[in-house]
Specification:
Layout (H helix, E strand, L loop, with lengths): L21 H27 L2 H12 L13 H12 L7
Length: 94
């Protein structure tokens, strides 16, 4: 005998926003432990890479540290203020 009627569930609102599954939490804990236990070897391996490979790895690792680049939108009035402030002229004077 089913606990709920067809099309119903015990949590109609679903998982709260931002809540993580137990599997994801366990995986993060394992990765954290792995990196702590193997940091010396990773650093040694990093130094053993060719310069181009080392640079590529460094750039890939930065993606996890630096915030994502958002598209910059410049309003014309802001551009005019910039030109006037730094160059002492309006766009029409160019």
């Amino acid at each position: 005998m089913a606990k709920f009627k067809k099309g119903e569930c015990g949590n109609p609102s679903g998982r709260p926003k931002g809540a993580q599954s137990k599997e994801k939490i366990d995986l993060r804990m394992w990765i954290n432990k792995f990196t702590e236990e193997n940091s010396a070897q990773v650093e040694k391996d990093f130094k053993d890479l060719k310069p181009a490979e080392r640079c590529m790895l460094y750039v890939k690792l930065l993606e996890y540290v630096l915030p994502k680049k958002r598209e910059d939108v410049v309003v014309i009035s802001e551009r005019e203020k910039f030109l006037k402030k730094f160059f002492g002229r309006d766009e029409q004077e160019e």
